[in-house]
Amino acid sequence: MPRKNPLSLPSFQPNLWLLLLCAGACHRDKAVPFQSKPEEKPSPSTTPSPSPPPITFFQFPEGALAIRVEGEAIECSDHVIYAAASNDFDEDGDRDVLLLTTSINRQAVAIQLAERTASGFERRDPIVTDQEYLSSSHHPDGAPGCTLERASWSSLSPSILSADIRARCEDGQTSLIIRWPVEIRPRIRVLERFTLAAKDGESLELEAKDRDEDGREDLVIQLQIQGVKDPIPITWMNRAAGLAIVEDEPESTIFTFSRRAQEAMRRNPRNAILASENAIALFETLCREAESPRFRVAAGWGLSCGKRAPGKAYALHAIALLRSLIPQPPKPSRSKRNQPSQPPKRSPFSIAASALRPAIEALIHLENPILEIQESERKSLREAIEALFPTKRFTVHHLVQSAPLPSPLPRLSSIVFVDDSHLLLRGDPPRLFELGEIPAEITLIDEMGIQRVPLRLIDHHLRNPEGQAAVVGIEQNCKGFVATIESIPQPSLALFGPFEQPSTRVSIIVEPRPASPSSGCPEVFAPELRRPIHFLLPVGWSSQGLLFARGPSLLLAPIPSSSDQSPRWLSPTDRSPAPIPHPGPLLSDLSAYTLALPFGVLVVDRVGDRIEIVRDEADPPSGLPVDAAISPSRHRLAWFCGHMICLTDLASPPASP
Fold this sequence. Notes:
Elements: E1 21-23, E2 25-27, E3 30-32, E4 56-64, E5 66-69, E6 72-75, E7 79-87, E8 96-103, E9 109-117, E10 120-123, E11 128-130, H1 133-136, E12 146-157, E13 160-169, E14 175-183, E15 189-190, E16 194-198, E17 203-209, E18 218-224, E19 232-239, E20 242-245, H2 251-264, H3 269-286, E21 295-297, E22 300-301, H4 308-323, H5 353-365, H6 375-388, E23 395-397, E24 415-419, E25 422-425, E26 431-434, E27 440-442, H7 455-458, E28 469-477, E29 480-487, E30 491-494, E31 497-500, E32 505-512, E33 537-542, E34 545-550, E35 553-557, E36 568-569, E37 592-597, E38 600-605, E39 610-614, E40 628-630, E41 636-641, E42 644-649
Antiparallel strand pairs: 1-5, 2-3, 4-7, 5-6, 7-8, 8-9, 9-10, 9-11, 12-13, 13-14, 14-15, 14-16, 16-21, 17-18, 18-19, 19-20, 21-22, 23-42, 24-25, 25-26, 26-27, 28-29, 29-32, 30-31, 33-34, 34-35, 35-36, 37-38, 38-39, 40-41, 41-42
Helix pairs in contact: 2-3, 2-4, 3-4, 4-5, 4-6
């Protein structure tokens, strides 16, 4: 293959330190112009020893396949040169060139050294390279999705350079910011590789400073994250074996934000909300325990943060949200200053449902097993819930000997209201009770042999409207929350008699896993770390698809065979998927639903735009996710409490003006 003819430059006197790099470039068979941006930054002399020679930087925005230095060519037939740094890196008296290159397809990034020899420049094997760095680092499936925008060298100190790379990803909202710190004295070595899958306005900067006075310059990363006002510093100490992160980071910074939230809690809960949001944003960006960390060190996404630091941040966030809704006592007038002030009485329905939703979502998120919540924080949570939703008096009915055992299969609630006066216990056999002062069991079959309740109320399987398929499983895996649907064998006639058609199974993604820059499946999806089932609970099946509840929100997940639409969250006023033929905790017309959660029985009235938590401090709900029911009028509530059924009347919402 004939050698390319690099462009020639006028020669300069040999006793000058500065070299002029010129690229003539051959990339894709056409000349590539380049810009030279020499920067000479002599390092300050702190000792009598001679100062290191200055470093000269050059950048080639469009890339080049060949450059010429002092009349000698540096050719890269297999790489594209984007930046170069000139210095006497091997301290042999002449200047070498450190190259920042990519592969021809611009998917692999490399740092290479071209040493000056008697016959010219000799390009060595790459000091470091990363195959498919841009193609697989942001997309789990490895599909190319990030395009190189720029690559350059910068100087952090006289002894440390930084290879700075930025690539734009196909989603149009994410950029890869890559920093490769390279120590050039006493020898060339790549210290580490840092990456941030950055959103708009985010940045990753490096600083070099000898923080422990051991003669080696340490590194401080400055992260600017959306939602956090000030940059977040994280320090790596420079040891002989390489970089070592300060032991208590990033937990220490997360705890710092949490302490700010705790200090602001009583004075101004809204400031506490902001401080806890900062801690959460830091956790979700930096920590490998989060679902989709966006910070990468070497080949691994996320730093180890443990369970305690994020647990405190999320707990304080929930407490602050709840306390911000607690009515404050009015300031006493001058005539009543000596009298103790009492907080105003407020019905929970005077709190807007839209204001309650974030607090309920935060409470549900605390059940995530990756979080460690201390008892003192749980006590504060209970106190905040009590201030908003005082314990209620309710009637306990000894209708059953024991509560139903948790089932690994999705099922409807074991109890369901036929109407406000009749409660049905699904099971074998089903039992129907008339709710008076003393509930009485009545037969399901009257004297004429007609069933008193529809068959669809007796069935506890979560079936489609046609009754030909049922949900048999829901799990959290690397794709997200996935539901498994199995067809119910239907009898058919054949030549030699009836037979049943075999059942088939299909899986649908209910809620996709959040977009993650990492490839593979993170550790949080191990079976022992999966979120509890009530985090996203199937509650009904309409003709438009499956309905799931996550606290105060409903999600409609169309079945692939009937719709090409993706899952969507329903607005509080959207009841279009009704009716549901098999009611459970969700009423057939989608007007209301109830869930028994660890912190209380949640009631969501979508018609009255109200949310209530029914709780009893002495006997909290068992935590079974679906064993609760609301009456068709939305005024009565029943749920399993221990081995009994609890029944209460719900407060009526205020009359509309």
